[in-house]
Amino acid sequence: MLQIFIPSYLFQHLYTHDEFREVQAQFRGKVNCITRSKHSALGYTVYKVVEQVSKSTFNKFTVTYYVVAAEVKCQCLLFESRRILCRHGLRVLSFERVNKVSSRYILER
109 exposed, middle or buried (CB, 10 Å; 0-12, 13-18, 19+)? Predict the structure, then answer.
């Protein structure tokens, strides 16, 4: 597991140059996201993450946080399609004060 609060440049040795640029973009993009809890159940919490993409345009994403595994699943499906943790998931992990990300989110070259 890696520390979530470490700077994105520490991911550099884990990814190709193009993948690392995408990781950096996700870290930068999470500042444009607002996290709101929708509901909780045993073992998970569902969040609504609102991302401001322009002055008057907002995109909404549903992110499920699994407490025991400290893992997230976002409806944007960036991780499932590109194997890169999205800004919405990063935002929820930060909101939950998760100190380490699962090795599931770290790609092997």
Answer: exposed
Q: Is 61 helix (H, G, I), strand (E, B) or coil?
A: strand
Task: Determine contact, residues 67/45, Cβ cutoff 8 Å.
Answer: yes
Stated as kind and residue range, the H or E segment containing 35 is strand 33-41
Measured over the CA atoms of residue 9, residue 13, residue 15 and residue 19, the dihedral's sign is positive
Residue 6 has φ and ψ, to the nearest 5°, of -75, 150
Q: pLDDT class for 49, splitting at 50, 70, 90?
A: very high
Q: Contact 57/75 with Cβ under 8 angstroms?
A: no
Contact present, 90 and 22 (Cβ < 8 Å): no
